[in-house]
Design brief:
Elements (H helix, E strand, L loop, with lengths): L2 H35 L3 H6 L2 H21 L1 H21 L7 H12 L2 H12 L3 H30 L1 H21 L21 H32 L1 H10 L6 H13 L2 H14 L2 H19 L4 H17 L1 H10 L6 H29 L2 H25 L9
Helix pairs in contact: 1-6, 1-7, 1-8, 1-9, 3-4, 3-5, 3-6, 3-16, 4-5, 4-6, 4-8, 6-16, 7-8, 7-11, 7-12, 7-15, 9-11, 9-14, 9-16, 9-17, 11-14, 12-14, 12-15, 13-14, 13-15, 13-17
């Protein structure tokens, strides 16, 4: 990588960490909020609906603006808007009416990241899959660290402390963008430019359907994970307390365990990027998603250590698809509208994922957590069938990174 590529990755990797951190602090607060508001878990989960919806559907707007004005000003807005929204959430953390509004603002500004940053990487990096894999590792780190750090913040400072931590890590991103400002492209005119994709509407349309289903699986599984662990790992909690004391609360134990479950996804991102550079993208994509199906059905009935192990495998493969998937987006779209293409992806991925929050609220209330995981397994079955369709409509030869 040249200096410009490295500095772009420095900025986008931290931003990817923050984008997922922003969205996954709330699940770690579900049980404390339920206690504070005297609501059941399903009602508190429903409070996040507009946050996750705007995180997704706003991506189309932000992608179009990035194609017009460039990535850098929008990345600054991402950090500043998210930090301000987190401060509002801290102020309104004891108000069940105003807190969802602050969360909605957080979702709106956090929605900037994916169409802007991934479009930026796909147009600037010569080794797209490598750049996306490195970037994905930091996204997985944000997913893993959010429940852990939020749980510790709540333990030390309460719910308000969790949101203030969120404001602080977003404000730090502004400093990072100043320190690692990328040098002018003119300094590297002699370098080989990033490979361009080719607009292919039919494969891209099928890919959009696949990514929408993947968004449902991702959002559903991550939103429910900390609460699920708090309810289904009582045996591990008792074992941990036998070595310590009563200071280890059920919520803190669940958020720490969620972090450990999500950490292997970092290796999944790297493994996905490795396969994306060496093998047919479509077959690697099929392999990863097909592996998640038996695992998620197993999670429906598992408790304690088996649940933890199955969860680690599930997120390893589910999140490991990202470098493969984003390289396919670059393959089937032109560089001129790349930000908008990623905007379409994330509008569907995270927009549909927001609606699964409402669906989970209904399913959990009427059937329990087992039904939620069965639902996610059914979604993955349909998703794999759609990947087979993608292979069918692009059957002329191997598809590797552009």
């Amino acid at each position: 990588m040249n200096t410009r590529e490295r500095h772009i990755l420095f900025q986008t990797c931290y931003a990817h960490f923050i984008a997922h951190f922003n969205m996954l602090v709330f699940p770690a607060l579900i049980m404390p909020l339920a206690t504070g508001f005297e609501m059941d878990m399903a009602q508190v989960v429903g409070m996040s609906f507009w946050m996750y919806l705007l995180f997704g559907v706003s991506a189309l707007l932000w992608g179009g603006l990035a194609d017009r004005f460039g990535a850098r000003p929008l990345m600054m807005l991402f950090y500043l808007g998210s930090a301000a929204s987190a401060c509002l959430a801290a102020v309104f953390c004891r108000n069940p009416i105003l807190l969802p509004l602050a969360l909605a603002a957080l979702g709106l500004f956090s929605g900037i990241y994916h169409p802007v940053a991934l479009g930026w990487i796909s147009k600037e990096m010569r080794r797209i899959s490598r750049g996306l894999a490195l970037n994905g590792i930091f996204g997985s780190l944000g997913i893993a660290m959010a429940p852990l750090l939020a749980g510790l913040a709540v333990w030390f400072w309460g719910i308000r402390g969790g949101f203030m931590l969120l404001a602080l890590v977003n404000a730090l991103g502004v400093v990072l963008m100043v320190v690692f400002a990328e040098p002018s492209r003119q300094d590297h005119d002699d370098e080989v430019s990033a490979p361009a994709g080719q607009a292919r509407p039919v494969p891209f349309a099928v890919l959009l359907v696949i990514m929408m289903l993947a968004g449902i699986a991702y959002r559903g599984s991550t939103v429910i994970l900390p609460a699920c662990l708090e309810l289904k790992t009582s045996g591990l909690l008792l074992l941990a307390r036998s070595f310590g004391d009563e200071w280890l609360t059920a919520n803190l134990a669940a958020t720490i365990t969620a972090g450990f479950i999500l950490l292997p996804a970092i290796l999944g991102q790297y493994f996905g990027g490795f396969l994306a550079e060496r093998f047919d993208l479509r077959l690697a994509y099929l392999l990863f998603h097909a592996t998640t199906i038996p695992v998620v059905f197993g999670m429906a009935y598992a408790f304690d250590l088996p649940l933890v192990l199955l969860g680690s495998v599930y997120f390893f493969f589910l999140l490991g698809t990202q470098p493969i998937e984003n390289t396919l987006v670059a393959k089937y779209t032109s560089a001129r509208f790349r930000h908008s293409a990623f905007g379409m992806k994330f509008a569907l991925t995270f927009g549909a994922g927001a609606f699964v929050v409402k669906l989970i609220e209904y399913v959990q209330k009427n059937g329990g957590l087992e039904n939620v995981y069965q639902l996610l397994g059914g979604v993955s079955l349909v998703l794999v069938c759609c990947i087979v369709v993608l292979i069918g409509v692009t059957k002329s030869g191997s598809i590797r990174q552009p």
